[in-house]
Amino acid sequence: MKKLVLALACVALFSLPARAAEMTVSGAASLTNAFTELKTLFEKSHAGLTVHVNFAASNPLLKQIQEGAPVDVFASADQATMDKAVASKVVDPATRKNFAQNDLVLIVPAGAKKPAKLEAIKAYKRVAVGNPASVPAGRYAKAALTTAKLWDALQSQLILGNSVRQVLDYVARGEVDAGLVYATDAKQLASKVDVAMVVGGHEPVSYPIAVATTGKNPKMGQEFLNFVLSPEGQKVLAKYGFSKP
Hints:
alpha/beta, D-Maltodextrin-Binding Protein, domain 2, 5-stranded mixed beta sheet, about 40% helix, tungstate binding, metal ion binding, ModA, molybdate ion binding
């Protein structure tokens, strides 16, 4: 009788469905469209795997990881945030790679008159940029405006966004006269915003990626990172306007 019970228990145990594999990717807000497609393609090539994606400004994402959020891959929109991740030991520095580049652009609502020079935005009532304290796009914008000797002059006109996508939305809805976002973001709402110019005067907009140490699936995290760097992954990124690192 005991043998029968044991046998039935074993059958029941091995009849249980296998727990589906899961992993989490935290990426900068500007990666939303590209990484959503990459997630879908990666899941299709890994049967039974569910990839959870979390998008926000890079600094808040880093803070979540530092507080113990179970993240397997972290992709930032700037090197400074990834440097902090390495320093706080929440990513494996040996896995850190640069995977994409972007441009900072000045946008205006669709149909609005485009300024001929960056200095012309001094005449605008509202100019949106990401908050430099937490948004990489905001730090690039501050550097560019500082180089152009406009940052101090624009203080009363600046509207700070919590992410580059929020800045994009402000301009698309006509709530501000202009904004500084990434070229890839402007491309997503090309029918609602016009690019006035590419803006320089800042460090290159370079995106690093690394396997996080707080996740439960580092092996799959490394595979996802490799996929992003692969020709197929780079093709998807190029589709959304990113250039190779």
